[in-house]
Write a structure and sequence with these properties.
Helix content: 10-25%
Radius of gyration: 25 Å
Number of helices: 7
Largest sheet: 6 strands, mixed
Shape: globular
Number of strands: 25
Distance between the termini: 55 Å
Structural class: alpha+beta
Bound molecules: zinc ion
């Protein structure tokens, strides 16, 4: 309809193209900026809605409406997304979107990462989408690229491809011969750093000397986790975690526990700790429970949880190793949106070793010998994941 209107106006000898253009953009935008790191952009205006993307602090976003405690975000896609008001500041209002301008694309590497550095006039929203276990797309929204002015430099053989998505947004795709080993987006002044961790390499002295692992004993302090038969989940989690740590250290890995003693740690505190330590692998240790007390002995076995495609293989290798080396049954490898496994770096999994709520299993899980067997099995799972993929 708009095209026909412009065509008719042009035919009549009057150039009203500017007027025609305004029909589309006659709404007011609120410019908001993220004030926290790891802010979720969601599918609808609810804290439980599916996550579309996560944004670091300092991202400039155009919002055209509000609902409940959320700003609606128009990324120019075929649907809207939502961001919680608590995670942003309002900066100003405008009648038209002013997209950021991409000035430079530089692709290079350092000892640990392959990096696409995008220099912009401002930091717009972005997304990281794992397209397979081996590939990730970085998409940059609300940004324009002037091909004639753009500076491009490529200083690495890493397989980055620069293209556009179906909505004309800049898309930088990374393909790897080996499975992804972590990726992230970082903001550095006016630059977006799209980072892909290089694959794991075995050490020359000790096999895992190039590996950093964070083990996360679930719960602690005022939060005991599941409590049954005079056993507290938090204690069993810590005992098993310490045993995993000493085994991994013998293989040369750098290993940190999110808590070394009985103390409370928030979920995001644990995730931030792993990020601070530049962990390659994050393993959260838990014991399972259930609320259906009548059927208390019916549930049993080991289950593992992951969120990102790249973490599936680690989850599955750990579970399979535990099943082979202990008497525990298979309770599934599950995709779940849990805070401790959502990060794309490190490769992250959560292990429910067994059911503390199941009398028979609770006896095993609290036995030091069995815990040793379990720790050994989890470490072999990590080794198998590395051996089969890198
Ligand atoms: Zn737990």
């Amino acid at each position: 309809m708009k095209k026909i209107l412009i065509f008719l106006l042009l035919l009549s000898g009057l150039n009203f193209a500017v007027f025609a253009d305004d029909i589309d953009t006659y709404k007011q935008y609120t410019i908001i900026k993220t004030t926290n790191n790891y802010v979720p952009l969601r599918d609808s205006a609810s804290d439980n809605a599916k996550r579309f993307s996560h944004l670091e602090k300092g991202v400039k976003i155009f919002s055209d409406e509000t609902k409940n405690n959320f700003y609606r975000v128009d990324l120019g896609l075929d649907k809207y997304y939502w961001i919680n008001k608590k995670d942003v500041d309002v900066t100003s209002k405008v009648l038209k979107k002013e997209p950021a301008v991409i000035d430079e694309i530089k692709i290079f590497e350092n000892p640990k990462y392959y990096i696409a550095k995008i220099k912009l006039t401002e930091i717009p929203p972005y997304n990281e989408i794992e397209t397979s276990e081996n590939s990730v797309d970085f998409i940059i929204y609300d940004a324009i690229l002037d091909k004639e002015k753009l500076i491009q430099s490529i200083e690495t053989n890493a397989d980055f491809k620069i293209s556009k998505d179906e909505f004309d947004n800049l898309k930088i795709s990374y393909f790897s011969q080996k499975p992804l080993f972590g990726h992230s987006v970082e903001i550095d002044k006016n630059n977006l750093l799209l980072k892909v961790k290089k694959p794991f390499v075995y050490g020359e002295n000790k096999p895992l000397e190039n590996l950093t692992v964070v083990i996360d004993p679930g719960h602690g302090g005022d939060d005991p986790g599941a409590v049954r038969y005079n056993l507290k989940e938090k204690d069993i989690n810590l005992d098993i975690s310490k045993k995993i740590k000493s085994r991994l250290k013998k293989l040369g890995a750098k290993v940190y526990l999110t808590r070394e003693k009985d103390e409370y740690k928030g979920l995001y505190e644990r995730v931030d700790f792993a990020k601070d330590k530049n962990a390659d692998i994050f393993i959260s240790i838990h014991q399972n429970s259930y609320s259906d007390v009548k059927n208390k002995n019916k549930k049993e076995g080991t289950s593992v949880f992951y969120y990102n495609k790249e973490s599936f293989k680690l989850a599955d290798e750990i579970k399979n190793s535990v099943l082979r080396r202990t008497s525990l049954k298979d309770d599934g490898t599950n995709l779940a949106s849990l805070a401790v496994v959502r990060a794309t770096e490190p490769v992250s999994v959560l292990v429910e070793c067994g059911y503390i709520a199941n009398k028979k299993e609770s006896e095993k899980l609290s036995d030091s010998k069995f815990q040793n067997k379990l720790a050994k099995a989890i470490v072999i799972g990590v080794k198998n994941y590395l051996r089969n993929n890198f």
